[in-house]
Structures are given as C-alpha cells and as structure tokens.
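Sequence in, structure out. Go.
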Amino acid sequence: MAEYQNIRTGRHCTFVMHVHLVFVTKYRHNVFTNAHLKRMEEIMRSVCEDFETELVDFNGETNHVHLLVNFPPKVAVSKLVNSLKGVSSRRLRQEYPELVRHYWRAQRLWSGSYFAGSVDGAPPSAVRQYIEQQNRPL
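Output:
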C-alpha cells in the first residue's frame, strides 16, 4: 500500500496512473551530453506541469531518455508525448546550435516512434529504480 501514498483526485475520480516513456534519437545517433540531459529534464518537467502531470523520474544516455510520468485520466499519453518531444527538440536546437549536425536530413532530433508502458503491473518504485540505473554519458 506504500506505493499508493500519492493518490490524486480529480473532479470526478481518484487515481494513481504512471507511464514509463522512452524516446530514442533519430537514427540512434549519440547526441546527448550530461549538460543536454540536465537541460532536457528541466524542459520536460515544465511541459509536464503544463499538462498537469508530474515528471517523477528522468534519466538518459547519449541516444535515448527514460521518463516516469504520473498523469491524470484526462491526459492522452500521445498528446503528452508529442508535446514533450516537440518542445524539447525545438528548445534544445535553439539553445545548443551544435546539435544541428544531428538534424542533417529530417530536421528532427527524435525518432518518430516511442515506447510507452503502463506501470500498473509493477510498483512505480521498481520502474523508478530501473530508470535511475540507466547510465548518463560523461
């Protein structure tokens, strides 16, 4: 029951919903440094706040990122993902011009696909531990 301490309430429901998201860079290029990942976490946390969701955990490597998001039933995961990927790509491109070389063909940082896994079957702490164990680049 400790996993459900942070039950949220909406106007007509009570809920605890988490999704594990993984975004991969276009062509799996090794793009990110620790500075990029740190800024990306800030950007994605801000996008989550705009959607009234909570970025519970974030981590990544040079070519992909993991997110654990607590979200209400009114939020469509696909819309959240589109915003997270779009805003992070645009802002990183503006703030880090050196990333342009990774956009050489499609003008996109992220692959068009993504992974979204329901965390309903696993306790959020287990997914959080998995995300925290992902290695960040030097």
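Check: Residues 2-132 form a domain with the Alpha-Beta Plaits fold (CATH 3.30.70.1290). The helical segments are 34-50, 77-95, 124-132.
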